[in-house]
Design a protein that fits this description.
The chain is of the alpha+beta class. Helices cover 46% and strands 12% of the residues. The protein is built from 6 helices and 5 strands. The chain has a 3-stranded antiparallel β-sheet with strand order 1-3-2. A two-stranded antiparallel sheet has the order 4-5. Strand 2 and strand 3 form a beta hairpin. Helix 1 crosses helix 2 and helix 2 packs antiparallel against helix 6. The radius of gyration is 22 Å and the shape is elongated.
């Protein structure tokens, strides 16, 4: 899943004039808007309710720790809804010359895991899985053939917030350049992230 921020006609005549006269300002403002959208999506994930839509409840932490131990994995004190995936959200500015910035997952592994979590999935209950759950003290009924991992939508609930906020961010940034309040900042890093779809 990803969110595309694309410049299109419909801005105020003053902003349109700035975009035509100062293309570097436009590109800088668009990149800044991508960064803003990335931060909003990360904040939504961390809050456990992106776009105000609360994630499905997680397994209690003490049970999750037991299960991780049974699998031979490292345990944590707390477990977050998408775990470390929050760090895999970024923005791709490589198409800024075409008026496009894309916010999404920064690796194919993140796309795979994130998409599964966003859509929800089933895990078949094998003999080995049943044994591991029993070792953790979690009983799986004999009639249970699959475990359901409930969908945790992330990008879709955030889309209205990004759609409403992105034009405002662009206008604020361009306005600040125009008023000389803020100079166009130089990139801190030459690194360009690629968002995978």
């Amino acid at each position: 899943m990803f969110t595309k921020i694309q410049y299109s006609d419909g801005v105020t005549p003053l902003m349109q004039q700035i975009i035509e006269d100062k293309p570097q300002w436009f590109k800088s403002a668009l990149k800044s808007t991508g960064y803003w959208a990335q931060k909003e999506i990360k904040a939504g994930i961390r809050s456990g309710a992106p776009g105000g839509q609360r994630y499905a409840r997680l397994m209690p932490a003490f049970l999750r720790r037991r299960l991780e131990e049974a699998f031979g994995h490292d345990t944590r004190r707390n477990y977050k809804p998408l775990g470390k995936l929050v760090n895999a959200v970024g923005y791709d500015k490589t198409k800024v010359d075409r008026g496009v910035v894309i916010v999404g997952w920064l690796s194919m592994a993140a796309v795979y895991i994130g998409s599964k979590l966003e859509k929800g999935f089933f895990t078949l209950v094998t003999g080995r899985l049943r044994t591991i759950y029993n070792m953790a003290g979690i009983k799986i009924l004999g009639s249970t053939t699959q475990i359901t991992v409930v969908a945790r939508p992330t990008y879709e609930p955030m889309r209205p917030i990004i759609q409403a906020g992105a034009p405002k961010q662009m206008e604020l940034k361009l306005g600040s350049y125009l008023q000389g309040v803020q100079e166009r900042s130089a990139a801190r890093s030459k690194r360009a992230y690629i968002v995978y779809q």
